[in-house]
């Protein structure tokens, strides 16, 4: 369940349920904010391979409005500690943060991964989503 807090009314409300009624088959699900929309990356095992699905919420008032954007071959990634940072539907490429030290571009078509990290022992990658609003919390 995804819950929103309305700063104007100071009330919580449910805006979405996680995608899929077969939630029990997923090994993990992680919410993220991608291209201005709430997104969910889910993984499950299929024919001995770990597969990920990236879905975005199209309409917050409609439960079935999760749209699948891409499938990801997670076996090519180092573990489950990754998250999508940006996705280009036009090129089919996704920027991923993998662990604390690595950035990579994943090509959905070729299922290939290109490391775009800065190779420095002191490098630590952090990321966050910034969302603007019309209501200032200080007013």
What are the defining features of this structure?
single chain, 139 residues, mainly beta, four-stranded antiparallel sheet, globular, OLC1v1035554C1
What does this structure look like?
A hairpin with a 2-residue loop joins strand 3 and strand 4. It is built from no helices and ten strands. The chain has 139 residues and is mainly beta. The mean pLDDT is 75. The radius of gyration is 17 Å and the shape is globular.
**What's the rounded overall pLDDT mean?**
75
Count of beta strands? 10
Alpha-beta content class: mainly beta
Q: In which order are the strands of the major sheet placed?
A: 3-4-5-6
Helix content class: under 10%
Query: How many DSSP H or I helices?
Result: 0
Question: Tell me about the biggest sheet?
Answer: 4 strands, antiparallel
Broad shape: globular
- SS strand fraction: over 45%
Over the alpha carbons, how many angstroms does the gyration radius reach? 17 Å
Low-confidence stretches are none
Elements, N to C (H/E): EEEEEEEEEE
Q: What is the terminal-to-terminal distance?
A: 29 Å
In short:
This protein has strands at residues 2-6, 11-16, 28-34, 37-46, 49-57, 66-73, 82-88, 93-98, 102-107, 112-115. It is mostly beta strands and 139 residues long.
């Amino acid at each position: 369940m995804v819950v929103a807090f309305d700063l104007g009314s100071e009330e919580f409300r449910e805006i979405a349920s996680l995608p899929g009624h077969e939630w029990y088959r997923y090994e993990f699900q992680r919410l993220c904010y991608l291209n201005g929309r709430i997104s969910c990356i889910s993984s499950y095992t299929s024919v001995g391979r770990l597969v990920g699905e990236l879905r975005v919420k199209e309409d917050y008032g409609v439960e079935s409005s999760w749209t699948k954007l891409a499938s990801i071959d997670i076996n090519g990634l180092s573990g489950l500690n990754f998250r999508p940072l940006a996705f280009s539907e036009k090129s089919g490429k996704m920027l991923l943060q993998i662990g604390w030290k690595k950035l990579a571009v994943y090509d959905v078509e070729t299922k290939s991964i290109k490391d775009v990290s800065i190779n420095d022992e002191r490098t630590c990658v952090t990321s966050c989503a910034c969302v603007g609003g019309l209501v200032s919390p200080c007013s």
